[in-house]
């Protein structure tokens, strides 16, 4: 599967299942470049709870070829 397609699936999961807004996600993606992985930034900025962070990591664990910057 193409990287862009997998990343779009990840963004869709965050929007649909974790309820991250498009604006929040855009801000985190912009700031993630070279700083930290997106899931950790979502947690550090208080946009997800620890339970939601665990759900994100569980989802990522089930996507073995997906790399999230």
From TrEMBL:
Source domain of life: Bacteria
InterPro entries (alphabetical): DUF2949
Pfam families: DUF2949
Protein name per Swiss-Prot or TrEMBL: DUF2949 domain-containing protein
Lineage per the UniProt record: Bacteria, Bacillati, Cyanobacteriota, Cyanophyceae, Oscillatoriophycideae
